[in-house]
Protein 1
Amino acid sequence: MQEEFLHYIWKYQKFNTLQFVSSDKEPIEIVNPGQYNKNTGPDFFNAKIRIGGQLWAGNVEIHIKASDWYAHHHEIDKAYDNVILHVVWVHDSAVYRNNNTEIPTLEIKPYVDRSLENNYLSLIKSKSWINCESNFSEVDDFLLDNWLDRLYVHRLERKSQRIQELLVVSNNDWEAVLFKMLFKNFGLKVNANSFKSISNSFDFSIVRKLQNNNLDIEALFFGQGKLLEKDFEESYFKDLKERYTFLRHKFTLDNSSVAQVNFFRLRPSSFPTIRLSQLANIYAQRTALFSKIIEMKELKEFYDFFGVGTSEFWKTHYTFSKSSKSSNKKLSKLFIDLLLINTIIPIKFSYAKTYSNSVEDNLLDLVQNIKIESNSIVNKFLDLKSLNKSALVSQALLELKQEYCDKNRCLYCRIGNSLILKK
């Protein structure tokens, strides 16, 4: 048994009767269970409890065993002086306040349906991939669809918090925040941290000054990414190096804190050289990125806008040292989908939330038109139950796994709740 389960029972009043009796045989009526407190202090504030006909207003503390009151040293903590009821699973000891007055105790175990307890324990003690793995397929479709929609919005809200933090350090420059987020996501999983460190190694104002000059932007990106430190005979490489030397002196650039980019276990089309050239091309060919993505609504608009390739040299190369068969190396729809999922939709959501604009329905329509992501977590869920094949579902499933399943938060999950309450 865990206190978290007792908090859940008390908060939502999951009892099989409303006729309670205290450990001293006095009748108890729960007028208001109080406000749940997740911080230090009593578990529920501002409760209203009628005990033996007398209405009390104050706090409620919950423990597995009554003696936990002393194990947690509440008897010497003034924060607990206003506790009007001690709610416990097992009453093994009377407890007293600092002034030696006894606190009424309610042992709730006799009032909780045995099926509720058994369902909770079977979930929480599960050793499966997720606690409800054996029951996931039984979950009502309507309940699951609504929960996944809510989980996706939860995920956007968490990402929005990180965007707001970036805004603070970027002096509320949305364009600069978009740049940092795009840069990191162009690195994908393997080079995300490296690319993030590159974008943090110089101010976005430099990109603004170099905009419309592809070679200068490439020189900045490649130079700060430590990709111009060796020597190659290619004239393109020498040109980049010369440009970067000038830029480094002009803007007092420093790349000592930049993490080394990785080529290992990457397909050539995802090499950091290709991704940096593609990103440089976006900023050379597209102006006012932020305002334009805020205006765009249809998926095709984003595919057209971000469908850029590399500079000429990279059409026949993947590295500086070796040529290859010529190809345009344009950003694929799959890659643009990832940019939409991880950067564009979150920043559009955060912008709308900041300025109290309602675009949630439009964003939900947009993400529902993007193909579902394929990864080990999403694929495992799809093995358990057939679900809609959209990016909203895959993002919601990632949120479910990371924020609920992995943290055993079944009590706060609508799926877990439905299984716990199942008769």
Protein 2
Amino acid sequence: MEAKLSNKVCIVTGATSGMGRAIATKFSGEGAKLILSGRNKGEGTQLASNLGNAVFLEGDVCEPSYNERLVQAAISNFGALDIVALNAGILGLGNVIDLTLEDWHKTMDTNMGAIFYLSKYAIPQLQKSKGNILINASIAAFKSFPNHPAYCASKAGAIALMKQMAVEYGPDVRVNAMCPGPVDTPLLWDSAKAFDNPANAVEIAARSTLMNRLGTPDDIAKLALFLVSEDASWITGTAMTIDGGILNS
């Protein structure tokens, strides 16, 4: 059976940990050629070495020029660009009164602005390849959590941007989003620090899912693979929830 992403060229941001790392690993296993993005040079270089047909480019997705270099790296190393998987994200914890302006702007720029920057430079290449964009959003776009105003707002904005780009660039480019619930990653445990008892908050989140467990990065990677593959060729403009049923609990 042919690999689902055989010879597809993919940029994966947030690739050095959590869901982004799992997605990069899954895509590589299905034949993709990867440009890996992240700020942790050691982790990124090691991941690229382990995966094989991958190049790591260290940088900050909040810098527009870095996003342009990611696209250039795909073209210079592999000759095309087929898929963009956007996973970089931060929390910006603190309520509206206490959250600093710096943290507000940094969270909005990382979680939403960077989607615009990379899409801006990637879409002309994706139009040529009939490719697609996948945004890793969150159920925080639909469900609010204490001390997460920047995170919730940025994830809702990311989904609105996804829908607009799907309208603007279809049928040539598909654009979709995933909305994970509580997934066992470092970001989840950092998010739990917004509560008085972080470990208890994570346990409650797991029990609140209809599946009675946290999600795993591989759960998310499986959905990501489906959405960027030809199996999802008639899906665009969609925000797909993957949350163990927590929004229905």
Protein 3
Amino acid sequence: MALHITQIEKHKFVCGLFWQSLSRPRELAREAADLGRKIDSDLMVIRMDHSTAQAGFAQSKEGVRRGMFSLAAVVSKTLALEGAFYDGEQQPVHNWLGAFELPDGMWAYFAVRDANFLPNGDFAGPRQEVMERLQSDYAMGGWNVIIGDSTLADLDFHNFNARDIRSFIPHRKDGSIRVHAWWGLRQIDGTPAWAKAMAAATVAGLVAVGGMYGYRYYQQKQEEQARDRAIAAARENMLREQSAASRPWTGKPVPLALVRSCHAHFGHITAGGWLLDSYSCTADQQSYAWSRGNSTVAMLHEQVPGALVDPSGDKATYVKALKTQAGVNDALVEQRSLLESIVSPLQLMGLSARIAEIDPRKGQATPQAGAGGQAGQWRPSWKSFSFMLNAHGVEPEAIASILARPGVRIEKLTYRGSEWLLEGTIYAK
């Protein structure tokens, strides 16, 4: 996202920072500076809300200067202090979208999931572009509130809070902005990128005078291209690593939630006297398959009007949409301790799960010896394991209680031949 500088009263604010999470509480500045150097950024700001810490990065060669304020940091801090009104009360808010008109006519957009700005969740652009992004992100679901200018109220967002951008900026009694130093972008290293660029241009000119300009220009272009490729790779890696979409467990319900939802909607066991062949249930839908037995098509349709009967009249299926609450952004735990904490209790119950490591990039099971992947491809920082488990008469909810651990997700529940089969994925460090 391109950086955008806007002026509110006498102060300049920046939108479009590249946000990354920080994990070392005792040395946030050092960790942020190290990250900034890796992605060739020379300016940063650090925010801390709801026990989370993030750094926002920018490059001074894009026109941003030290001391300009991060508008995203100001808005998120105010929301962290004040909360928002949803579900009938004023309360803390960790998942929110915001769209606000700026004094210069552009619109600012913010997307925060689990109290963290998404890497591309801070930008400014024309109203149409911001509205398209707002509608797209809103469709993902899981947001506590939508906050924005009062003109957006007609769009019928749930839990909409109408506020303008100035209401997030603290003011003194005389009406002037109460500035906090931490809002300001700080220099990562001693020399700004724009100064380095100017110095490089001066050196290039001197080399040209000395007759070496052509060689030096070629050499610089090669270095710039190599650096740009490295920066692009680092940015892509970080975006994948930090975005909600690349953390697949966040969009999947926790084990108990899925099992209870599937059980609650398991109601057509002997529909019209037909014999149940199988019932399967995921977070999105449930499906039944029956054989006619001694019943009739009419008797089936009397109880399940939407059932689809095959031409022979002896087999039927029924699929119905199901809505299950998405999971949370679990902090993953170490592979060995997680797997042992699952396998051992199951063994005490006489159960055994089939567990296989999979390649998260492809979603396919791979032999452990061949899991290295091709050089240059992105590899997540977590490991993924598929699992399949026959309950053998044990209630699925009892098994789900064992599986209720960080990063464990049941994705499909199947009932066939009086047996329950559970399938899912385990994510671990």
Protein 4
Amino acid sequence: MRGARAGSLVLMGLLAALSACGPVPVEQAELTCLRDARLAERPQTNVSLGVGTGIGGGGTRGFGSVSVDLSGDYLMGRDPSQVYDRCVQRRSGQMPRRPLYDQPGWTG
């Protein structure tokens, strides 16, 4: 009996968490989905370089990092505007108010 009760509590918690993932306003989805469209157009890279001193007089040290965001949509050659439309519809349940190429901030 205890195992069944614990299982039902877990299921109730999961259902509550999923219900919090409901649709977002279309305006918010449009802003969020611009990133997906950009990644479908080309990979995004970030390079960071710096110089610092070691703790306890260990001298000067250089450091750096490189990150690359690469999407499956880019690898599959998908059209960024279609990626954008699908993303907005998935997140908001509505089609975008205007196409990707008319969105402020789109430079594609």
